[in-house]
Amino acid sequence: MSSEINLALIGASGVVGKKIISLLEKKNVKVKNFYPLGSSSVGDKISFNDQIFEIESLSNFDCASVDVAIFSAGSSVARDYAPDFVKKGVYVVDLSSEFRYEEDIPLIIPEINPQALIDADGPILIANPNCSVSQLLIAIEPIHRKFNIDILNIATYQAVSGTGRKAVEELHNQVEDRSLEPDIYPKQIAFNVIPQCDVFLENDFTKEEMKVTWETKKILDPNIEVQATCARVPIVNGHSEAVFFRTENSISKNEIIELLSSYKSIKVIDDPKNLDYPTPLEHANDTEEVFVGRIRTQTIKGENWVSMWIVADNVYGKGAALNAVQIIETLIENNKLC
After folding, report:
1. How far apart are CA 236 and CA 99, in angstroms?
2. Structural domain harbouring 211
3. What angle do CA 207, 314, 241 make, to 5 degrees?
4. Strand pairing of 5-10 and 290-300?
5. Would you give the distance in Å from CA 283 to the centre of its chain?
6. 239 is a catalytic site residue
7. Backbone dihedral region for residue 114 (phi beyond 0: left; psi -120 to 50: alpha; all else: beta)
8. Is 230 known to be catalytic?
9. How do 91-94 and 5-10 pair as beta strands?
10. Are 69 and 103 in a shared domain?
11. DSSP output for 2-31
12. How confident is the model at residue 2 (pLDDT cuts 50, 70, 90)?
């Protein structure tokens, strides 16, 4: 990967933006010119590749010299600026949900569906999936391809870092003072579990729950029936998921372990006799892998069912920063940014 690129990072001073910078450095992505952009953070200084950069104003920025831009600043910023970047010849990777469900905009996990990147004949807008969906699909895609999953039920236990810096502060403050009224969340998050992520829709599912359904169908297979329950838990970082699915073909625990262990993006930790399984505290601290454990198989009324526990870093890992950087790497590998 020798091509040098001109890269703009919108939201460079944010929680995810800083992780993107860290991953670009770690993976030695060759950046010729780097442009950190923002709005309220204009003038702040950040470090990248041992150089100090001052954050420039997004609204005044001329993107003519940029090859690719990563938007990590929310839906409203993406809506206002991302399409114009593409029109001016820039590949755009957007981490918000603004464009994920538009039919003509690819929603990409490079290990699963990179074809839109490979086939691109010019700059396009690329949507980055929801954090819960990315780790889920990395773990179940190998199983689906071989054994055909047709029904999927998932309960997520999502860390407060998924909501942002202010949510992390709210958790810490409520741990210190239980009398503090909630601000970011509808109920106290400290010492609690809130069975709501995002707003409720007319069908009584939350938008986050429907994102799991919509994005699983768009990325993996439209024929999979999905039901999700998403809860917010008092964990700083690392999303966990309890996943239950039916397979058309019979499958054993050993087959699952052997299959998943062959993928470098997945790490199986499954030793119940020694109480060894993934947890966010142990395995979701600047980690790239998706961790899978508590694997169980059952035959229920003649049907093949699998249960699994999945953990991943939702900020640094596949849920956000890592997937965005891997999209950039895929574009470079396929000579799209030359």
Report:
1. 27
2. 132-159+193-312
3. 65
4. unpaired
5. 16
6. yes
7. alpha
8. no
9. unpaired
10. yes
11. ---EEEEEETTTSHHHHHHHHHHHHTT--E
12. low
Per-residue pLDDT tens over the stretch 13-35: 999 999 999 999 999 999 999 99
pLDDT digits (tens, 9 = 90+) for 147-173: 999 999 999 999 999 999 999 999 999
Q: Which 8-state DSSP code applies to residue 181? A: P
> Can you tell me the distance from the alpha carbon of 291 to that of 112, in angstroms, rounded to the nearest whole number?
17
Residue-wise over 139-177: b if at least 16 C-beta within 10 A, else e? Answer: bbbbbbeebbbeebbbbbbbbbbbbbeebbebbeebeee
Is residue 30 one of the residues assigned to a domain? yes
State the DSSP string of 162-176.
Answer: GT-HHHHHHHHHHHH
Residue 213 maps to a domain:
yes
| 39 shares a domain with 149 | no
Q: Which of 63, 131, 197, 230 is catalytic?
A: 131
Tell me how many domains the chain contains: 2
Angle at Cα 99 formed by Cα 235 and Cα 24, nearest 5°?
Answer: 60
Please name the amino acid found at residue 338: C
User: Among 63, 197, 230, 239, which one carries the catalytic annotation?
Assistant: 239
Residue 152 is predicted with a pLDDT of: 98
Tokens of 43: 């003038």
> Can you tell me whether residue 70 is helix, strand or coil?
strand
Instruction: Tell whether 145 and 263 lie within a shared domain.
Output: yes
Alpha-carbon gap, residue 190 to 184, rounded angstroms: 12
Question: For position 152, which CATH number holds?
Answer: 3.30.360.10
Burial 53-87 (b: 16+ CB within 10 A, else e): bebbebeebebeebbbbbbbbbbebbeebbeebbe
Nearest to 256 by CA among 239, 268, 242: 268
Whether 324 and 297 share a structural domain: no
The span from the CA of 205 to the CA of 219, in Å, is 21
Are 266 and 282 part of one and the same domain? yes
